């Protein structure tokens, strides 16, 4: 069996295209904790959905300034060949991976009556299939039954479904497959968890949304990208190794409005 020792100090992070995003905050936190980083991102997605040009190069320079090795890995996770290729390239550049953090997503608003088959399939490909293939490739770097350190795999999820049907539905599927990994991959020393951070403003909120969200939180404020990063940092640490197979709500007590 695999003892809960310190993980290899290299991590693959997905969905790290913008410096103000959750993925970037996680990258900063892990860099401060001594992890070298492979950062996966999709410039086309940032332009199509966020209306922004990726600034991950600037993030990489910031992290290198902390003394970390950083490998940039652009790729479209809708392509089923990409997850294994990203994992292989990350290992070639940085060595064995101790952590996999999946912050990528396809998220385009639509509802039951106007979601297209093409949009639903695109969400499934990125949010579910790519997550499975990334987790599979991460686990396969460890030979089952050996003392080679495994690692910590974490995915981000959401409860949002109403008028965001394909996103919410596929996030539900993501939860199930990632949590199954704690049991199926135990022989490889892999532990898995899912984080639901609640509403985090990464540029998509206006003042009205921020005010309404804060009012639904006991502390009267919304969490930030750093609150997500803090939990990830704990889960990949030796101190967090006993937490596994959990869907963790790290949302400050945010109460979802009644439908």
Describe the structure concisely.
This protein is of the alpha/beta class and 259 residues long. The protein has helices at 22-32, 43-50, 56-64, 82-94, 117-140, 165-184, 207-215, 225-235, and strands at 10-14, 36-41, 70-74, 99-102, 151-156, 190-196, 246-249.
How many β-strand stretches?
7
Report the CATH architecture: 3-Layer(aba) Sandwich
Q: Which CATH top level class fits?
A: Alpha Beta
CATH superfamily: NAD(P)-binding Rossmann-like Domain
Protein structure class: alpha/beta
Number of helices: 8
Order of strands side by side in the largest beta sheet?
3-2-1-4-5-6-7
Low-confidence segments: none
- Specify the overall morphology: globular
In percent terms, what proportion of residues is strand?
5-15%
> How many domains, in number, for the residues?
1
- Average pLDDT, rounded to a whole number, is 88
Backbone CA Rg: 18 Å
GO molecular function, one term: oxidoreductase activity, acting on CH-OH group of donors
Pfam family, one: adh_short_C2
Protein name: Short-chain dehydrogenase
Family: Belongs to the short-chain dehydrogenases/reductases (SDR) family.
């Amino acid at each position: 069996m695999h003892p809960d020792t310190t993980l290899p100090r290299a991590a693959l992070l997905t969905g790290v295209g913008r410096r103000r995003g959750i993925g970037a905050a996680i990258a900063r936190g892990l860099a401060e904790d001594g992890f070298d980083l492979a950062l996966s991102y999709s410039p086309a997605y940032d332009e199509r959905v966020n209306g922004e040009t990726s600034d991950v190069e600037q993030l990489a320079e910031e992290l290198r300034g902390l003394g970390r090795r950083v490998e940039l890995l652009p790729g479209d996770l809708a392509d089923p060949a990409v997850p294994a290729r990203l994992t292989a390239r990350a290992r070639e550049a940085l060595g064995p991976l101790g952590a996999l953090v999946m912050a990528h997503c396809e998220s385009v608003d639509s509802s039951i009556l106007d979601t297209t088959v093409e949009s639903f399939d695109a969400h499934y490909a990125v949010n579910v299939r790519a997550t499975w293939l990334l987790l599979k490739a991460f686990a396969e770097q460890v030979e089952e039954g050996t003392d080679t350190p495994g690692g910590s795999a974490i995915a981000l999820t959401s409860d949002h479904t109403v008028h965001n049907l394909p996103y919410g539905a596929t996030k539900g599927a993501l939860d199930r497959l990632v949590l199954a990994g704690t049991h199926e991959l135990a022989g490889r020393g892999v532990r898995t968890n899912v984080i639901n951070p609640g509403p985090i403003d990464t540029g998509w909120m206006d003042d009205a949304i921020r005010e309404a969200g804060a009012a639904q939180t006991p502390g009267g404020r919304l969490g930030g990208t750093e609150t997500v990063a803090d939990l990830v940092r704990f889960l990949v640490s030796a101190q967090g190794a006993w937490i596994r197979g959990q869907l963790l709500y790290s949302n400050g007590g945010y109460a979802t409005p009644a439908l």
